Amino acid sequence: MIACTYGNEILPDDIQKAQKNDWAYNLSKTIEVPQTEEWYANPIDSFIQEKLTEQGLLPSSRASKKTLVKRLYQTLTGLAPTYEEVQSFVFDNDTQAYEKLVDKLIASPRYGEKWGRHWLDVARYADGKGFSQPGQSALFPHAWSYRDYVIRAFNEDKPFNEFVKEQLAADLLDLKDKRDLAALGFIRLGQHYRDMKERQHEMVDVTTQAFLGLTVSCARCHDHKFDPIPTADYYSIFGIFKSISEPRAHDMPIIYESPDLEQRALFKVEMAKQEKKMRDFKTVAGKKLTGLARKYFSGYMSRISSKYTRKKPTYTAMRTTVNEFQKYLSSPKALESPLFKLWNQVIHNPKKAAEFVKQAKASKETTEELKTALGKLKKFNRNSVLDLYVGVAKELEKKPKKLQALMKPFEEVFTHHLVHNVKDLLHFVNSGTAGLKPKYLKLDLELQKTFSHPGAPAKAMIVKESSRPYNPYVFVRGQKDVRGPKVPRRYLQVLSKGDGVFKKGSGRLELAERLASKDNPLTARVIVNRVWSWNFGKGIVRTPNNFGALGGNPSHPELLDYMANWFMQNGWSIKKLQKMIVTSETFKQSSQLRPAAAKVDGENLLFWRKDPMRKSWEQLRDSIVQASGALKHKNGGAPIKLLGSNEASIRSIYGLINRRNLEGPMKYFDFPSTAVTCEVRTNTISPQQGLFLMNSEFSARYAQKIAESAEGDTDEDRTVSIYKKVLGRTPQEDEKTAALKFIGEARELYKNTYSRWEYGYGYLKGDKVSNFKPFQTFKNGRWQASEKYPDPVAGYAFLSAKGGHPGKGKNNAVIRRCNFYMDGTVRFTGKMIHPNKRTGDGVRVLILHNGKKVREWECKGKSVTTTLGEITVKKGDKIDLVVEPQKTMSGDTFEWPMEMSMNMNGSIDTWSVFDIFSNEQKSGITYSVWSCLAQTLTMSNEFIYVD
Amino acid sequence: MLTNTDKLITRRQWLQAVGSGIGTIGMASVMGQEKASNPFKAKPGQFLPKAKSLIHICINGGLSQVDSFDPKPLLEKWDGKALPRTFKTEFKTGGAYASRFKFKKYGQSGMPISNMFPHLGQHADDICVIRSMHTDVPNHEPGLMMLNTGDNILPRPSMGSWINYGLGSSNQNLPGYIVLSPGGYPVSGAANWRSSFLPGIFQGTYIDTKNTRIDKLIENIRNRKVTSTIQRKQIDLLSELNAKHLAKKAGEAEFDSRMKSYELAYNMQLEATDAFDLSKEPQHILDMYGKTPQCRQLLMARRLVERGVRCVQLFHAPGNAWDHHFDIDRLHAKNAAECSQGVGALITDLKQRGLLDDTLILFSGEFGRTPVVEMPRGGAKIDKNFKPGRDHNHHGFSCWLAGGGVKGGHIHGSTDEFGFEAVEDKVHVHDLHATILKLLGIDHEELTYRFSGRDFRLTDVEGYVVNDIIA
After folding, report:
1. Quick one: which of A444, A604, A680, B15 is 20 to 30 A from A631 by CA?
2. What ipTM was reported for this prediction?
3. B153 to chain A: which residues are within 8 Å by CB?
C-alpha cells in the first residue's frame, strides 16, 4: 500500500520534506559498487549478484553462443542474423568476439531503426491526428521528419541531454544542424481533439511523463494525491505550452530535400502541378472577387463617398474589397482613369473642386456619363462631386461593357494583390461569400497531401514563442471557466532550489535546460531505466513513466542510481550505456526457466535469468520480410502504408501510423494506441494473431518468397535451406523428419486436389457447350486465343483473374471450366459486373453442369447477383462459368468475382476465381508445399520469441 | 507491468480480509512482458452476476423521449406556445411541440409506449425504462464518448473493453466484444469501442453488417491459399515443432498458451463463419426478426451472445442516425420501423431460448431531444413547408434495459412536467455504467487499471449503482 499520501492540499512543508527524503527527488552521487564474492568486470553484475545472494539465488549460466548472437542482433537492430552470421560468430574464437559484435551492431544504421522506435513509443508518435474536422487533413503531412530525427539521434548517439533540449526548444537553441529543428515535432504530434484546448494539456502530460517519469497531469483538477505536485505546478507548466504558437503547414521550414534524387524530381513535378492548380484557383478567385466591385459598383461608390460626406451608404458588405477599391481610387494610378481622375483630384484637393470640374468637363478624355452628369451639376464642392459619382455609377451599371473597361486597371492591380497576398484572399474565401471555400479547402488539402510523396522534402513541425507569453492561472477543479489564483510560469517546485520562476520568454528553454540538467535527479534515471527495460523487457522501476509514489518500487535502486551517474559522466551517451548493459553477464544469462529460482522469485524481479521476449509487431514483421530476402532498406522519408496490395518491403518503422485507425495486426500485436505516451508495451496472445500469421495476404506473400528463394534439388536440401532462412539454423533430425513427412503428405493432397481449372472459349448450342477450346496464350495476366490480339477467329475474347471479354458471335463465349476430381457439393456466390451502359447490348451469363445449363442471367450496364445453391458434383464432373455476347460484343468488358465453396464430407474450402487463376491450364491451387513449410516456421515459438 | 500484479496481490489480500472468496478481478498478471496468457479466459467478477452478456442497442443520434417512452400530455396544452421554463439548447428552439405519436398502456404494469415502437408493447413487462437519464454535453461526439467510454473528451477505454478486461469471454473462438453497424461507423468512429490504455485486444471488433460475406466480416478469417485439409496438416506440424521446442523450455507457460492459440484460431475459422451465417436460421426466425439490416444484426447479436460473446453493441446506422432536428415525426418513425420488429423479436427469441435472464439488453442513445421545437435555420421561416423537429437535450432522456436481472415493467425516475429535465431519481450515465457493471457481477469501483500514475475506472470518480432497477 501507499506509504504516504497527501490530504486535500499540498503544503510547502510537504514539498520540502519530499525534497529531503523521497528517493525519487534525491539522486545520490556516491554509489559504491557492492563487494561480491565473485568479482565482476561489469558493475551491473555486482549489483545484481548482491540482491540474488540476499535471496539465496544464483544467476543463470551464460547462454549458448548461438542464442547470444541472435539475442544481440534482435536487441540491437530488431533484425535476425543470417545463418552465415550466426556461424561466423559461433566459430569465432576471438575472446573479444562478443564485444566486437556489439560494437559492429551498435554502429549499424539498423540500430537507430530499432532504438528510435522505442523512443517513438514514449513520444506517442503517429502520422495521423486522431481527430480532424471535415475538409482537414487527417494526417500530419510532415510528422515523419520527427521520426527520422529520432532515428538519426540514436544512430549518431546524440547526447541525451541535447536530445531532451532539442525536442522542447530547438527553435530557441543555437543549432549546428538545422535538421534538428524537426525535434520540435515532439510537442506537436499528440492526439488531436474536437476541443483543441486539450492539446496543451496533452503536452504537459507527455513532457512530464517522458522526461521526468512524473504524472503531473494528475494535478490538473486537484493537488496530486500521492506526489508533491500541487495544482499550481500543473498550471505553471501548462502556461509554457499555452505560450507557443504552431505555424501552419505552409509556414513550416523545409529542413532538407529528399535523399532519393529520382523521387525528388517526381515530387517537384507533382508539386508544380498542385501549385499551378492553386495559382489558377487564386487567379479565378481573385477575378471573381474583384468583379464584385463592378457588380455592386454604385454601392461601392456610395460606401466610399459616405466616408467623406458622412451620408448613410446604400451598401455595407465586403469591407475589405471596398477598402482596397478606395485605396486604388486615392492612388496616383486613378489619375490615368477617364472616370476616376476627377474623384481623385477632388479628394486630395477639395478646395479646388470647381476648377477640377471645369477641367473634366473640358477634357476629351472624360467619360461621357460623367460629363453628362457634370453638365447638370449646380454646386461645385467635394461632397457634391462625390454624390454625383454615385449617380454616375448607377448609370454605368447599365453599361457593363463600358464599366468593365473602366474598372480594368483596378481589377488588374487587385487580382495581382490577392494572388500574392494569401491572407487577404483567404479572408474572402473563408467569408464564404463567393462560394469558393470548399474548392479552396480541397486544393489546400491536396497541396498538403503532396507532401506524402516519397520524394517530398522534410519540413520541421516547429513551434514558436507566441508574441506575448500566456500568464497562467489555476482552473479550479480543472474547469476552464472557473478561474483560480494566478501562478507564474515556473518549474516544478519539488525539483527547484529557489522559486523556480522562469524569466526568459515563456520559459520553455529554461524548462528544457532544467530537464536536461545534471542536477535533475530524475531525467537520467528515467532514461536509464527505459533503456534497461527495452533490453530486458522490464525496468528496474517497472513503471517507466511513473517514478512517483504510485509507481513500482525500484528493484535495484542503487544500480539505477549508479548507472544514472555513470551515464551522465559518460556524456549522456545512450550507446555507451547500451554497451555496458549488453556486455554484462546479467544480459548474457540463459533464459532457461529454473523451477527452484522461480519459486523464490516467480516474476524474475531480481534478474536471475534473461526473460524470453516476444518480438514486437515491428520485429515480427521485419523478420518475416527479412527471411524472404525482400527487405529493402530505406533512408527515412514519407510513411508508406504497410499492408495491402502496394506493400513495400521496408522496415515497419517507416510504415504509416494512422492514429485514428491502426492497421489490424498492429492492434492485435500490441502496438501502442498513440493517444498517450506508452511506457511499456502490453503482451497478449490472441487468436487474431494466429489468424494473421495463418491466413493473411502478408503472411502468404512472404512465405511464398521464402519458398521461392530456397535452394537445393532434394526435399531434404530445400528443407534445410528454409530452416536456415527463417530460423538461422539447420533443422535437427527429428525436425527434419517431421517437415519431410509434412511435405510428402501435403504433396499427396495437392495431387488429389479436387478441382482444376481451364480457361477457353466455345460455342453454345441449345444452352450446351460444344467444342470447348482452351486458350493458347497467356500474356499480360490474360488468357487469350493466340499471340495475336484480337485473334482472327476469337476476336476480343480473353479471361483475366477478375473478369474478361467475350469474343464475337455465339462461337466465342468465354468459359472458365472447373474439372472436379472428388465428390462433394458446391455453392457459388458472386456477381457479374458489366459496367458499360452506353454501348452494346450486354451479355448472357450461364452456369453449366456437365454441359447442361443450371441457371442463366442477362446483364447490361449493371451488376447482377449470380449466386447459386448447392450442386452435387462427382469425380469427373465439369462446371462451366460462361459469358456469351448477345448480338454485338461491343462494350462487353466484365468482371465476375465468383466464389466457390466446396464441401467434401463437412470440410469446406472456399476460393474465388481470382485466387485460383493461374498461367497454367488445368491448374489447381498454386501455393506450394514449400510456402506452407516456410509459413509454419514463421509461426513457431522459436521464431516469435527472442530467446 | 508490475503495478497490475501489485494490485492483484493487494486486492487478493483485501478479499481475504473481508472473507470473500469469489475471486479476483481484471487481467492483472497476464499483462507483463514476462507472463502473457490468453486475455480472454473467462474470469469471475466480485458479485454473483445476474447477466453474462450485454447487448447494447445504441440509438445513435438521440431518441426523443417525449415521443417514445416518456409521455407528456401537458405539452398538448402548450403546443406551439413558449414554455414557462426552458433551457439553453444547442440551436435556437421555440415553443412546445406536443408528440404526434400515440401512447398506449401495455402489460400488467400498464407501461406507456408510443406507437413508434409497436413491437415493444408485448414486452412492456420485461423492460425497465429509466426516464431520468442525463448527461453532460448536448453534442454528439462528447455525448457518445460519455455513453460509450465514460468520458466526454479524453481517450478512455470503452465499456465493452472494460467488461472484457474484467470478465474475459466464455467463447475463445470469437472476439469478446463485437460491434455491429450497417454501412459504416457512427460519429467518432472506432473511438466508441476503443481499448485506449487497456491492451489492444480488448478493443471492439467492428463488423459492417451490410456485408453478408464472412471474410468481409472478420479479418483473416479465411485462408485463400491452401485447402482446409492441408491447413490442418500445417497446424499439426506447427504443434509438433512447437512441442519439441517447448520440451527444451520446460515450464514456459507463455509458449504453451501461444501454441494453443493457433488451435483456437483454427477453430475460430469455423465458429465465426457459423456465428454470422444467418442462412442457418429457420425461416420462421428470419421472418420474426424482419429483413432490414438493423433487424438482421439484432438476430446476429442473438447468435453471438448464444455463443458466449460478452458484449455486442449495435449502432443503428452510420453518422448520427437518429438526429432529427427537422421532420422528426416522419424520420423517427422511419428509423423505428427499421428496428422495432427486430428489437421485439430479440426479446421474444432470447426469452424462448431461456437466454433473457443471462443477457442484459440496453437500449439507449447518447442523449434525448427537446420537448420544444427547433427553430428553422438560415433565415427560413415557419410556414406550411416547415417540418418540425427537436434539438439535442442532455438535461433529460429515456433509456431502457431488459433481461439480465432488471425489474421488468418498471419505470424509474421522471422528468419535469414537460419532459425537459430529469428531476426525480436522476441517473447520470456514470450511474448507468455502475449499474450495468453490477448486473454483470462487477464492482465498478474495483474494476481498475493502473495507468499514467493512477487507477482508472469506467466510472472515473463517479457512479452510483441504481439498486432500484435491479430485480
Report:
1. A680
2. 0.80
3. 193-195, 198
Domain limits for position A698: 617-668+685-711+737-753+925-947
Which of B41, B171, B201 has the most A C-beta neighbours within 10 Å, making it the best mutation to test the interface with A?
A: B201
Same domain, B180 and B299: yes
Average pLDDT, chain A: 89
For residue A409, give the nearest of A490, A339, A489, A502 by alpha carbon. A339
Q: Which residues of B touch A910 (CB under 8 A)?
A: 215, 222, 224
Q: Closest by alpha carbon to A698, among A597, A784, A625, A639? A: A625
Residue B259 falls within a domain, yes or no? no
Would you state the pLDDT for residue A934?
97
Helices (H) and strands (E) in chain A, counts: 36, 25
The CATH number of whichever domain residue A894 belongs to comes to: 2.60.120
Q: Please list every residue in chain A whose beta carbon sits closer than 8 Å to the beta carbon of residue B37.
A: 685
C-alpha span between B241 and B247 (Å, rounded): 10
Q: What is the domain range of residue B15?
A: 1-35
Q: Which of A415, A431, A447 is the last residue of a domain?
A: A431
The count of structural domains within chain A is 4
Question: Reduced to 3 states, what is the DSSP secondary structure of residue A784?
Answer: strand
List of chain A residues whose C-beta atoms are within 8 Å of the C-beta of residue B224: 695, 700, 910-912, 915
Residues B338, B393, single domain; the answer is yes
The answer to whether B215 and B222 have CB atoms below 8 angstroms apart is yes
Q: Among B155, B201, B233, whose Cβ lies nearest the Cβ of A191?
A: B155
Convert B138-150 to b/e letters by CB count within 10 Å (16 or more is b).
bbbbbbbbbbbbb
Q: Comparing C-alpha atoms, which of A928, A925, A929, A927 is closest to residue A756?
A: A925
Do A306 and A360 lie in one domain? The reply is yes
Residues 128-157 of A with CB under 8 A from B: 130
Grid coordinates 448486473 are at which residue? B439
H-helix segments, B277-384? 283-289, 293-306, 328-352
Judged by CB atoms closer than 8 Å, whether chains meet at B225 and A915 is answered as yes
Nearest CA to A640 among A513, A452, A502? Answer: A452
- A931 at interface of B, judged by CB pairs closer than 8 A: yes
Q: What is the pLDDT of residue B227?
A: 80
B244 touches chain A (CB under 8 A): yes
Statement: residue B29 has pLDDT above 80 = no
Cβ–Cβ below 8 Å for B200 and A673: yes
- Binding-face residues of B in 321-360 toward A, CB within 8 A: none
Residue B359 lies in a domain: yes
- Is A209 an interface residue toward B (CB < 8 Å)? yes
Residue B382 sits in the same domain as residue B443 = yes
Q: Could you give the CA distance from residue A781 to residue A609 in angstroms, rounded to a whole number?
A: 55
Mean pLDDT, rounded, for B159-184:
88
d(Cα A384, Cα A379) in Å, to the nearest integer? 6
Give Cα A520 distance to the centre of its chain: 34
pLDDT 10s digits, A362-390: 888 888 888 888 888 888 888 888 888 88
